[in-house]
């Protein structure tokens, strides 16, 4: 994440549900700081009542467009006009347009042509034209799980940090305390590490057993304590399970079930991976064969 990147978040409430709100902010925190937060629609309408109840949570400014005049086109026009105004009069580095509507395709293209990053978010029904016009596009169904996350839970904060580190690892990037703090602050504006009894984030990270901190000169990196050595009991058991199946091997899904039976709460993210097959494939002496729906693991 570029910590200095400033973003404008523009939401079309006509076809986006309030239930995605936390997921939107969580996803967008990867790209920068949200300096402008606006949502467009008719907030006197019953359909937008739940949006109205949640706007204060994230300090989002509602831009009222009465549906009894020109309807949905008024919402689209207002969003487009504001986006162009911000393009020419503000110092934003990028835009996030949240909509499943192809009407914003030309806007996304124009913003991108002006050298701005354009992050699109919409449901699976979003037309390909809008997706292609964005620098990056995220399906909202994929971020829906984040809606249940509570900022008051220590476990939720730790899970968020694990996700940050894992995504960086998978992209070949290291993670520092500064990025972790910025990402948490972006997701939870009221985040304060003192809530958990610590005066500094670095002290909090040092006390979490899942994390390993390394200092090189004046730089501190945070990583997951994923041990893949031969003395890791889970690694040993996985090898033993696979070897016991001989030349027939074992289905990846079955192996996953066996691991979770033996180790309740097993999470591949603690080893720096988001998917089981990548974790298994990293273990020396094991080999994965087959297509994604029929993968099997063999000892070699």
Total of helices: 11
Mean pLDDT: 84
State the strand order across the main sheet: 3-2-1-4-5-6
Percent strand equals: 15-25%
Following the backbone from N to C, one meets helices and strands in this order, namely EHEHEHEHEHEHHHEEHEHHEE
Secondary structure class reads alpha/beta
Low-confidence stretches: none
* Helical content (DSSP H or I, runs of 4+): 25-40%
Shape: globular
Rg computed from alpha carbons, rounded to a whole number of angstroms: 23 Å
Multimerization state: single chain
- What is the count of β-strands? 11
Summarize the main sheet: 6 strands, parallel
Cα(first) to Cα(last) distance is: 39 Å
Q: Secondary-structure map with pairings?
A:
Elements: E1 6-12, H1 21-28, E2 33-41, H2 49-54, E3 61-64, H3 72-89, E4 94-98, H4 105-113, E5 117-122, H5 128-133, E6 136-139, H6 154-170, H7 177-187, H8 201-207, E7 211-216, E8 219-224, H9 233-244, E9 250-251, H10 252-262, H11 276-281, E10 286-289, E11 296-299
Parallel strand pairs: 1-2, 1-4, 2-3, 4-5, 5-6
Antiparallel strand pairs: 7-8, 9-11, 10-11
3D structure, described in words:
- The chain has helices at residues 21-28, 49-54, 72-89, 105-113, 128-133, 154-170, 177-187, 201-207, 233-244, 252-262, 276-281; strands at 6-12, 33-41, 61-64, 94-98, 117-122, 136-139, 211-216, 219-224, 250-251, 286-289, 296-299.
- With 300 residues, it is of the alpha/beta class.
- The strands form three sheets. A six-stranded parallel beta sheet has the order 3-2-1-4-5-6. The protein has a three-stranded antiparallel beta sheet with strand order 9-11-10.
């Amino acid at each position: 994440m570029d910590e200095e990147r400033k973003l404008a978040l523009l939401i079309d409430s006509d076809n986006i549900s309030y239930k995605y709100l936390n997921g939107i902010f969580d996803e967008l925190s990867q790209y920068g700081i949200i300096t402008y937060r606006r949502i467009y629609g008719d907030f006197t309408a019953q359909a937008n009542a739940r949006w109205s109840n949640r706007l204060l949570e994230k300090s989002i400014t509602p831009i009222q467009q009465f549906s009894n005049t020109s309807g949905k086109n008024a919402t689209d026009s207002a969003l487009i006009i504001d986006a162009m105004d911000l393009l020419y009069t503000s110092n934003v580095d990028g835009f996030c347009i949240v909509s499943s509507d192809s009407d914003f395709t030309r806007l996304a293209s124009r913003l991108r042509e002006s050298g701005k990053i354009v992050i699109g978010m919409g449901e699976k029904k979003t037309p390909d034209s809008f997706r292609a016009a964005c620098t990056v596009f995220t399906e909202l169904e994929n971020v829906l799980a984040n809606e249940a996350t509570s900022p008051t839970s220590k476990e939720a904060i730790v899970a968020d940090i694990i996700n940050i580190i894992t995504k960086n690892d998978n992209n070949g990037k290291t993670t520092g305390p500064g990025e972790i703090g910025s990402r948490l602050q972006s997701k939870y504006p009221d985040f304060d590490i003192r809530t958990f009894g610590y005066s500094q984030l670095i002290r909090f990270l040092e006390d979490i057993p899942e994390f390993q901190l390394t200092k090189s000169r004046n730089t501190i990196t945070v990583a997951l304590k994923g041990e893949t050595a031969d003395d890791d009991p889970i690694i040993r058991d996985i090898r033993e399970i696979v070897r016991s199946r001989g030349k027939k091997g074992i289905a990846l899904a079955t192996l996953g079930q066996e691991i979770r039976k033996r180790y309740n709460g097993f999470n591949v993210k603690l080893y720096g991976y988001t998917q089981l097959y990548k974790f298994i494939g990293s273990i020396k002496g094991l080999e994965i064969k087959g297509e994604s729906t029929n993968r099997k693991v063999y000892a070699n």
